[in-house]
């Protein structure tokens, strides 16, 4: 076996053994590369209606495609809805240990699987907003030609009508870019806060350390103990 074949097999096995969250992040990085490639070849038509059509396609085409790819890979409806089943046994066998390892890499419930499916589409929208050129192109209301501007140090729709003020339209185009990038950073910040809050709430109910979560945690532990037929005693909660 050649070195390249061995390297490819190791990389393929590495991808197969990744958990759902890591796969979502890796796919998001792949979409980042795709966005950069599109950016190198992107040309704004600089015609109002065509601008909106092509930008809408760029936003929602890969958005839906990436969601479908993750949906097919994770199959969210295979998992229970808001339920985390405890499959541990008192003396697990090697087969149970292997199965437990595989289950740890899979989503624990349907909403979690759906959340993983939405991570790559979310980052795709964020990448486009942070770029700025796409929203600026869609927001352009005048006919022009897509040329390089020395002041902006990027491409923009220069008006073809010689009676139009280039400086005014250049300023408007730059404003569209700034608005798009600001929206991208805000969206990224909101996403980070929401994820942190959801993870904190989940860990709270899972551990039962907080007072308002303790009752829920006790009910969960009691239900798991009854399901195991009382094989083990309920451990006291640590304040």
UniProtKB/TrEMBL annotation:
<comment type="similarity">
    <text>Belongs to the CALHM family.</text>
</comment>
<keyword id="KW-0406">Ion transport</keyword>
<feature type="transmembrane region" description="Helical">
    <location>
        <begin position="20"/>
        <end position="42"/>
    </location>
</feature>
<keyword id="KW-0472">Membrane</keyword>
<keyword id="KW-0813">Transport</keyword>
<feature type="transmembrane region" description="Helical">
    <location>
        <begin position="54"/>
        <end position="72"/>
    </location>
</feature>
<keyword id="KW-0407">Ion channel</keyword>
<keyword id="KW-0812">Transmembrane</keyword>
<dbReference type="GO" id="GO:0005261">
    <property type="term" value="F:monoatomic cation channel activity"/>
</dbReference>
<dbReference type="GO" id="GO:1904669">
    <property type="term" value="P:ATP export"/>
</dbReference>
<feature type="transmembrane region" description="Helical">
    <location>
        <begin position="183"/>
        <end position="205"/>
    </location>
</feature>
<dbReference type="InterPro" id="IPR029569">
    <property type="entry name" value="CALHM"/>
</dbReference>
<keyword id="KW-1133">Transmembrane helix</keyword>
<feature type="transmembrane region" description="Helical">
    <location>
        <begin position="113"/>
        <end position="130"/>
    </location>
</feature>
<protein>
    <submittedName>
        <fullName>Uncharacterized protein</fullName>
    </submittedName>
</protein>
<dbReference type="Pfam" id="PF14798">
    <property type="entry name" value="Ca_hom_mod"/>
</dbReference>
<dbReference type="GO" id="GO:0005886">
    <property type="term" value="C:plasma membrane"/>
</dbReference>
